[in-house]
Write a structure and sequence with these properties.
This protein has one domain: Arp2/3 complex 21 kDa subunit ARPC3 (Orthogonal Bundle), CATH 1.10.1760.20. 79% of the residues lie in helices and 0% in strands. The radius of gyration is 15 Å and the shape is globular. The termini are close together.
């Protein structure tokens, strides 16, 4: 039953991330629900299922949104790093989740921006990049208290 709930939640997140949220963006910035979900499950699950779920979520996001597999790499590394932080953290899980979202969102935006600029030779605007970095981090931090109860429900047996 738990796998079904997690699959249903992941399907809803991917649908929101790839279909609905891009239509309701703020100056081209949308929250990264998949990144927030990866951090949630990396903190709340054991290492192997969390890493596999991170890789699957990133891979499905790449298939549905952009096919150059950057999301797979970012989400898998984020999941593994968040799980490592969880093993060494002494506080409560909610604080850890919020801190990791605040840490990994700018790193994700930075990795995506550098990849698009240096590998795909897209134009780069420093001011828009800084705006996107701050706005996406704020978006994702707003999502943490909204999604936390929902994710906890998916983990109940």
């Amino acid at each position: 039953m738990r796998a079904f709930k997690i699959g249903l939640y992941l399907s809803a997140v991917l649908l929101l991330q790839t279909v609905i949220l891009p239509r309701f963006n703020f100056l081209g910035v949308v929250p990264d629900l998949v990144l927030v979900t990866v951090v949630f499950y990396a903190v709340l699950l054991e290492r192997t299922p969390a890493t596999l779920l991170s890789a699957l979520a990133g891979f499905l996001q790449d298939i549905l949104a952009c096919p150059f597999y950057l999301n797979t790499i970012i989400k898998t590394i984020t999941g593994a790093a968040a799980n490592t932080f969880r093993e060494r953290f002494m506080g409560d899980e909610y604080t850890l989740i919020a801190g990791l979202v605040a840490l990994f969102t700018p790193l994700s935006v930075l990795a995506e921006g550098l990849t698009l600029h240096f590998i795909f030779h897209r134009e780069f605007s420093l001011w828009y990049f800084i705006f996107r970095l701050v706005a996406e981090t704020v978006y994702n931090l707003i999502l943490v208290p909204l999604l936390y109860p929902l994710v906890r429900v998916t983990l109940d047996e």
